[in-house]
Amino acid sequence: MIKNKEFLIGIVDYNVGNVNSVKNAIEILGYRAIISNDIKVLNHCSHLILPGVGAFKEAIEQLRNSGLIDFLEEFIFKEKKPILGICVGMQLMFNSSSEDGYHIGLGWLGGDVKSLNVPKDFKLPHVGWNNIELKNNNLFYNIENGVDYYFDHTFECIASENIVIATTNYPNKIDSAINKNNIYAVQFHPEKSQIDGLRIFKNFIELC
Amino acid sequence: MLKKRIIATVIVKDGIVVQSKTFNKYLPVGKISVSLEFLDKWGIDEIVLLDISASKNGSKLVIEQLQDAVKNCFVPLTYGGGLKNMSMVHSVFHKGADKVSFNRAFFNDKDLISNVAKEFGKQSVVVSLDFVEKNGEAFLYDYYNAKETKTDLKDAIIEAEQLGIGEILINCVNRDGMYNGYAINTIKSLKELSVPLIIAGGARGYMDFEECLNLHQVSGLAAGNMFHFVEHSVTKLKSQLKSKLIRKNLDFNYDNHTLSFDQRLEKLDDNKLEKFLYEKLLDREIC
Asked: How many alpha carbons lie under 13 Å from residue B53 in its C-beta half-sphere?
């Protein structure tokens, strides 16, 4: 039941995390998805998804080792095709992270990744379902303000540009989704957030 | 606001989902993929999949079928059972688990736990501790050797926290499958943890959940047996719970908020149902 053949969604496989669940989510929506680390294959894609689970340091090292960064930058800045970062995939796009030392990120987005700042009686990691306050954006078409998404992270992105399209409180404000031109990224896991998560993928594919 | 999670524990023995009673009697339920799909559709918040035969006879039955089993599961999934080394952990993550749970390794290979936490991030590691209640005290239970230890549950929790992990699941062995409520006194006696705590063992109905939802120690409430053999068990539970601390998700086949006098879910308003009549609905209607 392939719905639309013009879309091919590439899931960047750089040896980190749970890429299969992203593929599952896209395929259940009726689109074609491919998991790959091969530039030739990814170049054919209409959209890319940069997934991510785990620690920033490990993730950025794996991405550098994969040799995909130059290709990704061409895909995004020259060809202007859309990309969606998920969780650590979002964090990688910022300038730097202070998780376990100091690490330089991809620098596509202005801002840094810092440890979540929570009062004493709030636990870390920030794990579970939390609601988002969203701004008007194509990524959130048909999604109500205040719906819950699944979060699981200890570090947060602090954007220095005006690119934040959704925030979440735990109890302080977290930047939970961003959009800058054709770059989209979410801190939560849409592939693990049931129907409202699938909507994010559908919107990203159809409207972004 | 961060919601308290309603979690389903899916116990698997020799490749089949079972109901478990105090860790020694088992009743078969069915296929893993079916259980996961149903729980997801009924609106569970998270699933913990435990292979209880993996440690004892080294079976990899569940890991082998994990990739297919999670095809229709769009909630976070924790896998536990028989994880002995890094490469097994790798393959479990690759096949679709979001977190791994360690129980046996807490007794004999703590390094493995902290190494996994370092490599995959602490948020992907759960330590699951079984305990028995005895004369108002709680002791760690060694599931592999089927005997209780002299370690106090509180000390075990502190030890687990120090491994740099993300969550702790505590499961009361004498309440497992007995339907006599969570070990509320033990839970209340725990001091504030630095990581989220999931409680399991004994839940039968919404009263048990209501009792523990407000406890500040508790981040997630797990149950296993009560979700099996009952249609829409999760939806019904969430409708019975009036607390604002849980996630209410909307489905379109039934009214999420009302229950009839005999505690069944009310069907949707006729006009609404009629609207669906001539509309072709996908398995998962998202627009």
From this structure: 15
Q: Is residue A16 domain-resident?
A: yes
Supply A122's token pair. Answer: 């709030």
In the predicted structure, residue B278 carries a pLDDT above the cut 90: no
Return the CATH number at A84: 3.40.50.880
Query: What is the C-alpha separation between B157 and B141, in angstroms, rounded?
Result: 13
Distance from CA of B157 to the nearest CA of A (A): 15
Q: Is B240's pLDDT higher than 90?
A: no
Of A20, A58, A170, the CB nearest to B2: A170
State residue A91 phi and psi, 5-degree precision.
-60, -35
Structural domain span for residue B177: 5-249
Residues 6 or more apart whose CB falls under 8 angstroms from that of B252 comprise: B268, B272, B276, B285
ipTM (interface predicted TM): 0.90
Mind listing the pLDDT tens digit for each residue in A105-130? 999 999 999 999 999 889 989 999 99
- Amino acid in the structure at residue B274: E
Residues of chain B numbered 110-149 and touching chain A (CB < 8 Å): 118-124
Burial B246-275 (b: 16+ CB within 10 A, else e): bbebebeebbbeeeeeeeebeebeeeeeee
Residue B250 has what pLDDT?
A: 57
Cβ-Cβ contacts under 8 Å, B44 against chain A: none
